Amino acid sequence: MSYEFVISLGKNAIETMLLVSLPVLGFSMVVGLIISVFQSVTQIQEMTITFVQKIVVTFLALLLFGSWMLSKLTSLLHHIIVSIPTITG
Question: pLDDT digit string (tens) for 12-64?
């Protein structure tokens, strides 16, 4: 097992992690920003307002992008499993 292989595997894992988490975090961030602007405009400073909307948007994003996220993770796992002989050999 070479250093280049380990670095490549780590790079692929980090890229996949960022790519898979991006839709959920992106939608959650946009909703949080919209609610923060709404709270600033209306001067409502209730901290619990954002939680329900963020949870709902997170679940919706998981429903919309769940199959794509699963295929990306499965692809990475397949790559890792296929490369096991080169790791041990």
Answer: 999 999 999 999 999 999 999 999 898 889 888 777 777 888 899 999 999 99
CA atoms within 13 A on the CB side of 55: 5
Does the pTM surpass 0.85? The reply is no
Quick check: 53 and 35 in contact, CB under 8 A? yes
State whether residue 89 is helix, strand or coil. Answer: coil
List the domain boundaries for the chain. 3-88
Report the distance separating Cα 71 and Cα 38, nearest Å. 36
**Residue 14 to residue 16: CA distance in whole angstroms:** 5
Question: What is the dihedral sign for C-alpha 2, 79, 88, 14?
Answer: positive
Query: For residue 36, what are its two tokens?
Result: 């923060």
Measure the CA angle with vertex 24, ends 58 and 36; round to 5°.
70
